[in-house]
Amino acid sequence: MSAASTPARPAAIKGPSTRRARITAVTSGKGGVGKTFVSANLAAALARQGRRVLVLDADLGLANLDVMLNLAPKITLHDVFTGKSLLQDAVLPAPGGFSVLLAGSGMVEYSRMTPEVRDQLLQVIDTVAPRFDHVILDTGAGISDVVLYAVSLADEVLVVVTPEPTSMTDAYATIKVLASTQARTRVKLVVNQTRRQGEGRAVCLQLQQVVDRFVNPTQPAPVRLDLLGQVPLDVAVRDSVLRRQLLLEVLPGTPAALAVATVAAQLLD
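The chain above was modelled as a monomer; its predicted structure follows.
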């Protein structure tokens, strides 16, 4: 393993702190738009800027962050929730210089947000937040109660969308629900799998127009979409996912990797 891909030691959990991480929920209206790809590579880009970053797999029942990072965790959030393991033992180093908290996959008990799971997830985030500069919540897709609760715990929301009409429709539905149930007035946007320059801005503009027409008249404050950037359709993305490696680690000079780095810079700015 090269020095560039050596996992960083996870930040310690114990001890008081007055600082708190900036929490970003990365979500999407539908699956298959590259949400977890954006979350993981965005974390790597932030880590390169000297930030202490944790990615928490908030897709509690259908987790796949471990697959993307080629990790085989012995301890997951399920073990923490059930009292089998300590939270500090579940925070693992990941390639790219950031830390992860992984969830289990195929856990039926996490398909609905029960009061117990709500309390446990909130406690976990409250515990780890003071130990990092940035916490990224890689949520599930859609508008289930599990997804919406995870998003409600974040300081900001980043919606990943593609130019595909169904993705845009579902992204609009997500933005509408976030506005009506959480009073979100700012939503950040990353347009993935674009085919031409300026396509991301066109998608953002189209979504903003629909929000202005159908959502904002019903809200006390208008909802504004902030485009952080577009990530071009790039064969390197598919190759890195198939190899279960971070694009920013193995092919940092490719168009998609450079675009994610730009998104990270916009997020910090």
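Residues 19-264 form a domain with the Rossmann fold fold (CATH 3.40.50.300).
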